[in-house]
TrEMBL record:
One of its GO terms (molecular function) is polygalacturonase activity. Residues 1-29 form the signal peptide. This is Polygalacturonase. The lineage of its organism: Bacteria, Pseudomonadati, Pseudomonadota, Gammaproteobacteria, Enterobacterales. It holds the Pfam family Glyco_hydro_28. Belongs to the glycosyl hydrolase 28 family. The keyword Membrane does not apply.
Amino acid sequence: MSILRCHLKVIIAGMLAVLVSAFSVTALAHDSPDLPEPVLPAHICARLVPRQVYSSGDDTQRLQSAIDNCPQGEALQLLAGRFSSGPLTMKSGVTLWISHGALLAANTDPRIYDENGHCGTLDHKGNGCRPFILFKNTDGGGIVGEGVIDGQGGKLMKGEDESWWQLARRAQTEGAAQNVPRLIEIDDGSNIIFHGITLRNSPGFHVTLKNARGATFWGVRIDTPANARNTDGIDPISSQNILIAHSFIRTGDDNVAIKAGAGGPTRHVLLVDNHFYWGHGMSIGSETVGGVSNIRVRGLTLDGTTSGLRIKSDISRGGIVSDIRYEDVCMRGNRRPLDFDTRYDVHASGSNIPVYRDISLSHIAGETGQLVLRGYDAAHTLHFALDGVYFSNAARWLIESAQLLIGPGGVSPVPPGEASLQRSSAPADCAKNWIPFPVTDAP
């Protein structure tokens, strides 16, 4: 064919070395058979209890003062009850410990998050609010505990007749950008730990990491309605050495979105034994111009996400996405269980052509839906290795400008134009992997 619309090549022998590669221990020390669970801080600098009667109804000043005066290596502990606060800035080496039964609620007044006079309004940039909790140039510390941080995205903004989420939905209909605060933002931080905490109802993204160097999310729960627009779960951007393990995420946008903008590449990201529910799936992109590489996803369930495993970009923001491994993934109730597309925005313009290569899927099981592998053109094809990838016969392939290597475990349904293979392994038994979302009690 003069134009490579759908080029499929089957290689039976010698695929296991391609399909399964070790994650460099020097690149990410977390990658071992027995990942070490983070431990809670040994020293507590202060314990705060909720105020029962106070004039302002706001704990911002005393929380920020306690953080600022907490020595590095120690934790500020919030005991059971409700705390209400405006924006907080974390200090290097200090951990915020939110105990079981404690709730930290974000104030709904747009004015206290304001950066440029636009917070709580629409414009064409959407960068008018500071986050609720900010880690900036910090090393160490984090947020732990079995309590809850609630962004109150569904509550009316103070002094307004709509909520943060309603503002975001209105922005969509009016072709504008909403100015809403993110729940947690890490800027140029390193060695941050999140353990056991529940994050819910963020006005915007729940956790954004920009130029982070080392962060662990262990046993984290992110819980926000499916119709809450642009409420991504965890977004590493131009960051490296990130671990997301044993966590549960349901939200109104990408459950996880790994991105790389002009700030640099994202690499060495490991996801192990996580469960995703409603949301847009396990995503890479759409910003990939900085390059995304060395990503490992293993032991993941995607239960009702719209897309399952997804890489999305376009010529306005594309870059090289390479050395990506997906292993032991179970999916059900997905419209696009596989969604690897270089034309995320069909109206995009630019010269940053997305390139996806050295990507492997092994021991993947799902149901019906569309299986999309769409490269950009004959000169920029997708390079995928598939081994033991099984969907129902009702699933349908959409393959363009792609080169596939199929391993001994086979692929079902068989991609178009290829003969059936005698597979050497059975589809994964996913029944034992489905578990309900573990809801956290909170005051």
